[in-house]
Amino acid sequence: MDGMYTLSGFVVGLVVGVTGVGGGSLMTPLLVLLFGVSPATAVGTDLLYASLTKTLGGWVHGQRGTVDWKVMGLLSLGSLPAAVFTIALLKYLAMDEKTLSGLVTGVLSVALILTATALLLKGRVRKLAQRRDGTDHGLHHSHLDAATIATGFIVGTLVTVSSVGAGVLGTVALLFLYPRMQAVKVVGTDIVHAVPLTAVAGMGHLALGTVDVVLLGSLLLGSLPGIYIGSHLGARVPEAVLRPVLAFMLLIIGTRMVLY
């Protein structure tokens, strides 16, 4: 196991522990840009890494009752079939490594920039949704279930190709669709939904041969203590400071991926 991979896992784990986001959006481009890992392999490995690291967080939220299981189920109705369909499509197309890397890099760049934008607009999105919830009941009553399933499908496709989207984008979508849901429940529901999604997508990549098991072990060795330490530091660092810094980092990385 490469010590640098373990150190990178620790740093990313620390960021995730402090901010609650940034796993896929930092780990995948880090593997591609810093270590020269193939984009497809970076995505596949990161998906299994995410499913394992988020399982504990999901279990904690489940025990605390901070998960809306109905919403989680609706998201999964869209995201899990989307993950299976996307993997099947990638297998059917049987793209060569260069073409597949180009596809993954392109989708990853867009996902990173969208994630950075979502981070910056998170507060405004919630305020907008709360105002809309008080004046317009169309979406929030007649089409809410369908909109949630559709959101799951979009997130599932994006995550399967890029490993990015299950965190910030999923959270912002939930804030818009369910403005009255408690913030802790939004986070808990999003984390629990991400566990089966990243597991299914990751196993699909494993079947495609785009997972490095040794690399996965090295990342986990560093990330688990990083997340533990970061979670204890998170309460001491204000979110108003963390959010723009992380968004700025993702914008830079996303722009760099466009030029990759």
Task: Considering the chains and any ligands shown, give keywords for the structure.
mainly alpha, 260 residues
Q: What does this molecule look like?
A:
- By secondary structure, the chain is mainly alpha-helical.
- The chain has one domain (3-258).
- Helices cover 84% and strands 0% of the residues.
- The longest helix has 39 residues, at 97-135.
- The mean pLDDT is 82.
Order of helices and strands: HHHHHHHHHHH
- For the record, the count of structural domains works out to 1
* Backbone CA Rg: 17 Å
Question: If you average the pLDDT, what whole number results?
Answer: 82
Shape: globular
Q: Work out the helicity level.
A: over 70%
Pairing-aware structural class of the strands and helices? mainly alpha
Q: Write down the oligomeric state.
A: single chain
Q: What is the count of helical runs?
A: 11
**How many β-strands, per DSSP?**
0
How far apart the termini lie comes to 26 Å
Q: What share of residues are in beta strands?
A: under 5%
Largest sheet features: none
Spans of at least 5 consecutive residues whose pLDDT stays below 50 are: none
Compact overview of the structure:
With about 260 residues, the chain is mainly alpha-helical.
